[in-house]
Amino acid sequence: MVATTHDVMPDIELYQPTDEANALSLASTLGEDGWLLAGGQDTYGWLKDRNKSPAAMIELTKIDAWKGVRETANGIEIGALTTLTEIINDPLIKSRYGLLSMAASRVASPQIRNVGTLAGNLAQDARCWYYRRGLDCYRAGGNLCYADAPESLNREHALFGQSRCVAVSPSDTAPALVALDATLVISSERGQRRVAAEDFFVGPAVDIEHMTILRPGEILTSVLLPNSWANAEFYFEKVADRNVWDFALVSVAAAMKVSDGTIQDARLACGAVEAKPRRLTAVESALRGKPRNEATANQVASIATQGARPLNYNHFKVPLMENLVKRAIRG
Amino acid sequence: MGEIVRYKRDVWGQEVILGVSWDLLWVVAVAVLVLLAAHAIIMAALANKKMDMPSAEGRRVSRHEAIDRAFHWIMALAIFALIITGVTPILGLRFAWLNLHWISGLILTFVVVFHIIRSLFWQDFKSMILGPKDFGEPFDSSLKPGKYSFEQKGMHWAVTIVALTVIATGVLLFMQIDTPFWDRTNSMPESTLGLVFLLHGLSTLALIALAATHIYFALRPEKLFYTRSMFQGWISEDEMKANHDPSKWAPKEAE
Predict the structure, then answer these.
(1) A residues 149..188 contacting B (CB < 8 A)
(2) CA separation for the pair A125, A275 (Å, rounded)
(3) ipTM surpassing 0.95
(4) How many domains does one find in chain B?
(5) Of B1, B113, B180, B210, which is the most buried if we count CB atoms within 10 A?
(6) Does A3 touch chain B (CB under 8 A)?
(7) Which of A136, A199, A312 to mutate to test the interface with B (most CBs of B within 10 A)?
């Protein structure tokens, strides 16, 4: 439904559980009708424009168990409701997993980072403006993509993995978590399941109406960062139209294990080029055993954009992505 | 529940057709299940315990040539793949279904075109024509058919109409997606697109009902010899004489 009026706030049942069991029970009971609310920075835009109208909302911010950073035997565990500002400033994350701090520091604006949570940043919906405008496109359950027609404005849209829908993953922290080989913990009344960050996100070929594998009744409750990538060499860069309060046109996150100037192992992911963070496995393979320098960067970076299918107005993303990958490798 | 057509707002805010309501999938499933179960019960009640089944032994006559059997099974596999890849995502299964769907659709299109050409020029097309006389067949046990019975002709023409509709609408929808052969233009008007989706959905539902019915009859004990002939190509002379009129169908001996 296209928003045409801005009247009063619609009626929404608000639930504010204070413990995990209650939250999971509510999520299970309400199912698809239970909209999960954390920082609200994705939610309030939808509500303000009257383009989503959830019957009930489960506010999760009162659940302390899903907040904060804890050290574990295998690395660290970050509560999914930890705010982005807390992640930026946390000494453990800063010292061992600076890539995540860097990525979080580039999300939106300081005000949004103060309330926005890691879970919210990861699970936020697509920012395609046709979709957010409330048009009944593929992602909204329709049978058309308004962003990929002859006259569509699509400079922000996907280079890869287009399958009817051409929206991209807007998350800045998602590529960082893929590069850090993070594991995401998803809880529900039935128990917990753990998935690699890479597998948490889903493209339109598999599920055109969702950005993640989260199903009704499930809540993303924590993120685990493994010791194996602690203190690696990191690189994060995001290019957007504005330096603050804007979504990436392309971003790159890289983690590399370098010994005597030679790359032993690497994980790279790009944001805003596909509906999920695009892991650059071919680039990673090409980097192993090579020196981390300009020559390697020049030699390998073009692999990153192989298979790109630009739309009418986003051809610029191809050299942009290639250059960002080059800069990430060069360091 | 209750609606047949789903609607949406187009880019101008006008209400246009979105497609078929998939609630109908359950209606079709239940209806087919009930009807086939009822048929099975009635047939069981009417059956003579010592039913005289014609012998499969003795002289064999050819019913389906190898190329026609191959066509049938390729078409069956393609339709099965199309139904699975088209319907299971609607039921909530998440997988990359679209490529599998259009590849199966292309295979179905090619084999159907092949079948149409072959049936018009190399097969006995007249044996499949459904004429007014055929309608008396179910009510008069003395009337025996030629190669195909009234029910078989009816099923064939129903599948023909439904399959051609699903193929025609499928090809139009195929042109709206990116493929290795072209980039989509996204230029079909939304109202036309909705109508095509509606016809594709309705013909899919009909195809599911027909496929279920066809499989049911293929597994009925008194029809199993037809199913065997679709694997092996022959029926026995006894089976032919018990179910067909030799003056209307004179098959050659099976090799």
Answers:
(1) 149-150, 152, 162-164
(2) 10
(3) no
(4) 1
(5) B210
(6) no
(7) A136
The residue range of the domain holding B147 is 5-43+63-243
User: pLDDT digits over A113-137, tens only?
Assistant: 999 999 999 999 999 999 999 999 9
Strand pairing category for A191-196 and A183-188: antiparallel
Q: How far apart are the first and last CA of chain B?
A: 55
Q: How far apart are CA B17 and CA B197, in angstroms?
A: 9
**B53 inside domain:** no
Residues of B31-52 as b/e, b for ≥16 C-beta within 10 angstroms? ebeeebeeeeeeeeeeeeeeee
Q: What's the sign of the alpha-carbon dihedral B141, B143, B149, B150?
A: negative
Across chain B, what does the average pLDDT equal?
A: 92
The model's pLDDT over A12-65, given as tens digits with 9 standing for 90+, comes to 999 999 999 999 999 999 999 999 999 999 999 999 888 898 999 999 999 999
Chain B: closest CA distance from residue A313 (Å)? 15
CATH number at residue B183: 1.20.950.20
Are residues A205 and B8, on separate chains, in Cβ contact within 8 Å? no
Residues 6+ apart with CB under 8 A from B172: B188, B196
In a domain, B50, yes or no: no
* Token pair recorded at residue B179: 């493929």
CA gap B7, A148 in Å, rounded: 22
More reliable by pLDDT, A302 or B250: A302
Coil, strand, or helix at residue B80?
helix
Q: Closest to A142 (Cβ–Cβ): which among B18, B178, B185? A: B18
Residue B98 domain-assigned?
yes
The answer to whether residue B56 sits within a structural domain is no
The pTM for the full model equals 0.90
Q: Specify the pLDDT at position A2.
A: 53
Is A2 in CB contact (< 8 Å) with chain B?
yes
Q: Which two tokens stand for residue A42?
A: 């994705």
